[in-house]
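SEQUENCE-TO-STRUCTURE ENTRY
===========================
What this section holds: a protein sequence and its matching fold, both as plain text.
Tokens: labelled as protein backbone structure tokens, with as many entries as the chain has residues.
Question of interest: how does this chain fold, as expressed in backbone structure tokens?
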Amino acid sequence: MAKKVDDALTREDFDAGPSSYDEVEPNLYLGNLTAATDLDWLKQTQISHILTVDSCPLPRKIQDSLPHIKLKYMQMTDMPREDLLTSFEDSNQFIQSALDSGGKVLVHCYFGVSRSATIVIAFVMKKYNFPFDKAFEAVKAKRRFVGPNPGFQAQLKLYEDMGFTIDCSNIQFKIYRLQIAADKVRKVKILPQNYVDLVKPDPALLSTHPEPTVYRCKKCRRILANASNILPHRPKEKQIWRHVSCKRDKVPKQIRALEKPAEPSAKKEEKEEANTEPCNKTHFVEPLAWMPDILNKCEGKLHCPKCNSKLGSFSWVSGCQCPCGSKVAPAFYFVPSKVDWSNAVQNVQSTV
């Protein structure tokens, strides 16, 4: 990528601009690719750790020339639907470990504007319990042209909503991960191995702690889903994870909050929307282990694994339009007339 001449790297093969970096926190720097390949600056500043958030790792010559530097590479593109959120815990730990050891850490992407800025903002949010807006302004005060893309901003807002951690029980996080997985399924036509954890265990199997509230097949009474597997939705709600370049009526509330302050009428509309009761015209659920076709098909029908009665359908790509007007994608759903709700688990033996 770059050539070494007299122990210095030239920049003929990339155009990330001149070396650009800013100290956001004591010993924590945010910069671009040029700074990360500037051997003189790295030596002078005594950088001990480099976190690369880019589509390509640093040239091998960096490690060869400065073997004492600890490198970490996170392969990410600057696309709104790239998943940085699930990497926040890992990146926070790397940065904090570097600082705790008395080192100096550089976090960079190509321009030091979007991807690496997102990682640093997440770190500041976690460290100081700052909401997204406050952390964003704090980092921007140190590096004036930081600007995470809209998708990354939405992920940071969700990170705030989850209390600066990864809460796998959070409904919005479940929807977020399903939609990221759906992007992968759309490309490769099967569910990638690293998303298999999205498929939840069969609730009908023996369990030491069965949930008291379940959904059963109306015909044979076989348990199909626990209450915790339900993904609630509200009438006319758009649950497709989109960035702000979309039409406003297709932008979820997480991202709308990042736009300019709402007018009084808009606030009233959001208040009315918040008071709307969840819809029960369609039961959307998480993918479940008894749904065999969901791993290698983009869409299909859902049948009871015991009596083979048709229960509903699934679609990773197109999703489902509920009669209430809500659009959910991807969608795994039961038709309400095909299932019964039960508030007590019966005839389930517990194992010790």
